[in-house]
Amino acid sequence: MHDVIIIGAGPAGISAALWCDELGLDTLVLEKNERVGGQLHSIHGPIANYPGVCATNGAEFLDKFSEHVDDADFDLWTGVEIESVDLRAKKIGLRSGEQLQSISIFVATGVRRRQLGIPGEAEFAGRGIIESPTRDRDKFAGHDVCVIGGGDAAAENALLLAEVCPTVTVVHRSKNLKARREFADRLKTEHSITVFSEAVVTQILGNDEVEAVEIRRKDALKPFQMAVRGVAVRIGVEPNTEIIQGQVDMDQLGYVVVTSQQETTVANVFAIGDVSNPVAPTISGATGAGATAVKVIAARLQGRER
Question: Superfamily for 137-233?
Answer without folding.
Answer: FAD/NAD(P)-binding domain (3.50.50.60)
